[in-house]
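Hi everyone,

Forwarding the result from last night's run.
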Amino acid sequence: MTIGTQFQQAIASAQSVSASLKSFALETQDQQAKQLFNSLSQNMDNTVSALQARYNYIQSEEPQYKPQ
């Protein structure tokens, strides 16, 4: 498995976690829990952005990692 593939999997996993947290926030009536889920979701969105930026950098610097 290449680094590119591992990054793609990590990004997809982080996006999935973020979506689950957003869903939890929508489903709960507890305002404190809702705020927690929304905060955690925002953190995951930031993680996705950071991973995506690093993946883009790797692709620009290392042509062998570009998708074919």
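The CA atoms of residues 4 and 67 lie 8 Å apart.

Cheers,
N.
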